[in-house]
């Protein structure tokens, strides 16, 4: 009998400095060791509570820091794919997307010696307009995906998408398990909760309320990025670009630092009060009638 797991603890392993340099300032820069330091801090926190989680690795990070991939695997956590170059699906062709996913999957499997089952798209970029990406994910050999935010958002979202973990049929007729990100309905509007900037900005009591509300109906999918624990000043070359940026970009980047110091204590409280596990176990439990797909 498969033991029921109420929540999954997931990490999208990417380097905040290099992504900000590329996506905000259009400047190419190397991955920084901050992603290792911060991911290790998450690993230490999970170790304190004897929790195993799922780490969706960016291919660039795995290539630059293979030791981090090995450490995650050796500590018993699950490894997944978060793309190779952190490209959103609407910025790729089908062929480019397949190469992006396949390349990252092979690299992470080669480094860790473990099979990779799961995928999460950068910026939750599987939407009604990019649902062809579900075909690509299945074709690349993944068992499950966790990329869909069932909201009507500005940057991402799939309004009306089923909120529970389920087996779906991709546009070309393939089977793929989808584990949507967690949301709650407030006054008729779906609100993202339990991860990323929402975990950082919402007070703990609100996140706790959301956890308990969701768990009455389905498992919770918690997610975060290592940089959300980063409270130290970024490198000088980052601030050189920030000074030259327009007011909107400066405001956007400064807003990313609001309440960062609150994230670690919030995670500690959640780990203390709720049961977490790896996404593959959550998926296996939720789709126990289809476990043959997992082998």
What does this protein structure show overall?
This protein is of the alpha/beta class. The protein has twelve helices and ten strands. The chain has a single domain, classed as Glycoside hydrolase/deacetylase (TIM Barrel, Alpha-Beta Barrel), CATH 3.20.20. The chain has a four-stranded parallel beta sheet with strand order 3-2-1-10. Strand 6 and strand 7 form a beta hairpin. Helix 5 packs parallel to helix 6. The radius of gyration is 18 Å and the shape is globular.
Any chance you could write out the topology, listing elements then pairs?
Elements: E1 7-13, H1 16-23, H2 34-48, E2 54-57, H3 59-64, H4 66-74, E3 78-81, H5 94-112, E4 118-119, H6 132-139, E5 144-145, E6 166-169, E7 175-178, E8 183-186, E9 189-192, H7 196-201, H8 204-215, E10 220-224, H9 236-244, H10 247-255, H11 263-273, H12 279-286
Parallel strand pairs: 1-2, 1-10, 2-3, 4-5, 5-7
Antiparallel strand pairs: 6-7, 8-9
List keywords for this structure.
TIM Barrel, 41% helix, 14% strand, four-stranded parallel beta sheet, 295 residues, alpha/beta
Largest sheet geometry:
4 strands, parallel
Radius of gyration: 18 Å
CATH homologous superfamily designation: Glycoside hydrolase/deacetylase
Distance linking N and C termini: 16 Å
SS strand fraction: 5-15%
Got a strand count? Answer: 10
How many alpha or pi helices? Answer: 12
Q: Give the oligomeric state.
A: single chain
Globally, the shape reads globular
Looking at CATH, which topology would you report? TIM Barrel
- Helical content, roughly? 40-55%
Derived structural class: alpha/beta
Uncertain segments are: 289-295
CATH class: Alpha Beta
In the CATH hierarchy, the architecture is Alpha-Beta Barrel
Please state how the strands of the largest beta sheet are arranged side by side.
3-2-1-10
Mean pLDDT: 94
Number of domains: 1
């Amino acid at each position: 009998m498969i033991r029921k797991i109420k929540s999954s603890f997931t990490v999208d392993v990417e380097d905040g400095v290099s992504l900000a340099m590329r996506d905000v300032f259009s400047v190419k820069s190397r991955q920084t060791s901050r992603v290792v330091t911060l991911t290790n801090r998450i690993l230490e926190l999970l170790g304190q509570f004897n929790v195993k989680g799922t780490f969706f690795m960016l291919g660039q990070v795995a290539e630059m820091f293979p030791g981090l991939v090995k450490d995650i695997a050796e500590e018993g956590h699950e490894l997944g794919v978060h793309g190779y170059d952190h490209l959103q699906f609407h910025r790729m062709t089908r062929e480019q997307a397949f190469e992006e996913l396949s390349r990252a999957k092979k690299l992470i499997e080669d480094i860790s010696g473990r099979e990779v089952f799961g995928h999460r798209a950068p910026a939750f970029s599987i939407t009604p307009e990019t649902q062809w990406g579900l075909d690509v994910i299945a074709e690349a050999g993944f068992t499950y995906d966790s990329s869909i935010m069932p909201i009507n958002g500005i940057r991402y979202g799939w309004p009306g998408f089923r909120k529970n973990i389920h087996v779906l049929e991709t546009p070309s007729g393939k089977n793929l398990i989808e584990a949507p990100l967690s949301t709650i309905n407030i006054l008729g509007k779906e609100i993202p909760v339990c991860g990323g900037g929402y975990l950082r900005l919402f007070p703990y009591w609100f996140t706790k309320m959301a956890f308990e509300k969701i768990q009455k109906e389905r498992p919770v999918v918690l997610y975060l990025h290592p940089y959300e624990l980063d409270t130290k000043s970024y490198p000088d070359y980052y601030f050189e670009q920030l000074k030259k940026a327009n007011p909107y970009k400066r405001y956007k980047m400064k807003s990313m630092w609001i309440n960062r110091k609150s994230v670690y204590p919030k995670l500690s409280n959640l780990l203390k009060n709720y049961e977490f596990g790896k996404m593959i176990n959550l998926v296996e439990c939720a789709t126990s009638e289809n476990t043959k797909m997992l082998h």
